[in-house]
Prior knowledge:
There is one protein chain. By secondary structure, the chain is of the alpha/beta class. The protein has six helices and six strands, in the order βαβαβαβαβαβα. The chain has one domain: 3-Layer(aba) Sandwich (Rossmann fold), CATH 3.40.50.850. Strands 3-2-1-4-5-6 form a six-stranded parallel sheet, sandwiched between helices.
Amino acid sequence: MASALIVIDVQRGMVNENSQHVIPKVIELIRQAMAKPIPVLFTRFINHAHSGYVKWMAWPRFMDSPEVDLHPEILPFVQAQFEKPGYTSLIPPVRTWLEERGITRLYCCGVDTECCVLKTAVDAFESNIEPIVVHDACASHSGQTAHDAGLFLLSRFIGENQIRSLDEVVGAQFT
């Protein structure tokens, strides 16, 4: 079974007092993956003026630097990077990247648990790619309540066994 790690939207605008604590866990997960070697890909959410976020949610953020820039602490690890206009990371170029490598298991970490992490994991599940969400390497910039809600919904969508801690993932040989 070929695995990959996807680091979802760990961007300057997403990392704040509610989500900063996951940066060391995300970095540890990246290091562990690269040591295997498990391929790692990174996504950035970039909004645009005519998006649903602007039209229906009145949310015009994440259109420009510095908000859209990846967090500086993860920049040294970035090799494959994809820009996405919505919640899911499984956009066509990412799907192609995964298919070219024969990926059948996708470890997910990043920000926001209840939005982009959730949508990516559910889309992987529905694409017959096993999603594993590393819960302590995920957070919500909106706070713990949103993160917990995301984990609850993920347990319903993809199964409780697909939500694991960093220690469980690394302890299971991270394959």
